[in-house]
Design brief:
376 residues, alpha+beta, conserved putative lor/sdh protein from methanococcus maripaludis s2 fold, Helix Hairpins, 10-stranded antiparallel sheet, 4-stranded antiparallel sheet, 4 helices, 20 strands, 22% helix, disordered N terminus, disordered C terminus
């Protein structure tokens, strides 16, 4: 059934309803804006640090190299017939590596041998005649010299023939073959065929700058102030064999301002290969009363490194610190901390000085997370 209400009466009813709703809302809020819900303290993991004794060290970048890196070169020219080794395999000293075409050298040996036999027969005949005084001494001396020259030429021809088999001069790991089968080999600059690297022991080259040398007594590397040498692999693990220094440069590089050094490590299992980038750690003694703090807990700022602490009221307190070197995954902190300080380990980017926190012990790797862990 159609309504008899006019449009004006409908608008009046809607306006009245809206006014009543606004009045009710205003009465509930008492004219004050709604406040956001209160935030609780930030949950953080903390490490209560204690002073301890740690080994002091200097750690620098280094690179491995073979104890011997020997070039294998051809001593005679010719066509390379065959490669006799597998690239990258370990070979013994004297093991054949390449074969150069022997045919021309075999002919040279045969020719030199015939000449040597001829001059030897001539010398025997001249000896009989000189004893009978049928020839002059000069004729005999000429025959003797000709025989010596022929015999020397035969030895040289035999030596050239032996050089067509190119052998490893030392034992070690072979490199990539520079020449392939069918190439013409020339004596001289083009004679390089491959290289052999002696990898046991293996050497590690590195340098110390002035700032590192200042950490040592007398600012020099000596047998007294270096108690050990360790090698750190790319994954951060320490190589299981101790090393020793086998070279110290007696001068400072004037261009780089560094002293060149070299260490030696046993490498019987060929775990290390020449050319690897590693780190060398020189053990220089011990440090007492220092603290170990995870690297991730230290913030680097323009004023220097600092850590966030949870103070006695469980509020964030920034603390500038002094650091020395890394020890594993930790920084060695030499100043700024005291025994019992609680260093915050996580949520660092969300923290503000004076903000409340809910500290808890750091999780043990591999342990299941405890449900509803309590606050300390």
């Amino acid at each position: 059934m159609p309504s008899n209400r006019s449009p004006r009466s409908v608008l009046s009813a809607l306006f009245a309803t809206s006014t009543l709703s606004l009045a009710l809302l205003a009465g509930c809020s008492d004219g004050k804006p709604a406040a956001p819900p209160a935030m609780g303290p930030m949950p953080v993991s903390v490490l209560e640090v204690q002073p301890q004794q740690v080994p002091s060290s200097i750690e620098v970048m280094a690179q491995t190299e073979g104890a011997r890196e020997t070039e294998v070169r051809a001593r005679v020219g010719g066509i390379l017939i065959k490669r006799l080794y597998q690239e990258g395999e370990t070979v013994k000293a004297g093991q054949p590596l390449f074969q150069i075409d022997r045919s021309s050298y075999e002919i040279a040996v045969a020719d030199a041998r015939a000449r040597a036999e001829q001059t030897e027969r001539e010398l025997k005949r001249m000896k009989t005649l000189i004893e009978a005084k049928a020839i002059s001494q000069k004729n005999y001396d000429d025959a003797s010299s000709a025989n010596e020259i022929a015999q020397a030429a035969l030895r040289q021809a035999e030596l050239n023939l032996s050089w067509t088999t190119v052998s490893a001069p030392v034992a070690g790991v072979t490199g990539r073959a520079i020449k392939s089968e069918g190439n013409l080999i020339s004596v001289g600059e083009d004679s390089l065929l491959t290289s052999v690297y002696q990898t046991n022991p293996i050497w590690v080259r590195f340098s110390l700058g002035d700032s590192d040398l200042q950490k040592l007594e007398g600012s020099r590397v000596t047998d007294k102030n270096i108690s050990g040498v360790e090698l750190i692999l790319a994954d951060g693990t320490i190589y299981d064999q101790p090393g020793k220094l086998n070279f110290r440069a007696s001068t400072i590089d004037t261009t780089l301002g560094t002293q060149a050094l070299r260490a030696e490590f046993d490498n019987a299992g060929n775990r290390l290969l020449p050319g690897q980038f590693v780190r060398i750690r020189l053990l220089t003694g011990t440090r007492d009363g220092v603290f170990l703090v995870p690297q991730s807990a230290i913030m680097q700022t323009e004023q220097g490194p600092l850590v966030m602490l949870a103070d006695g009221e469980n509020k964030v307190a920034p603390r500038p610190i002094k650091v020395a070197e890394w020890l594993g995954r930790d920084w060695v902190v030499t100043g700024g901390l005291q025994a019992g300080d609680k260093v915050i380990l996580d949520n660092l980017m969300k923290l503000r000085p004076g903000a409340p926190v809910a500290p808890k012990a750091p999780a043990v790797p591999g342990a299941p997370a405890a449900a509803g862990a309590g606050k300390s």
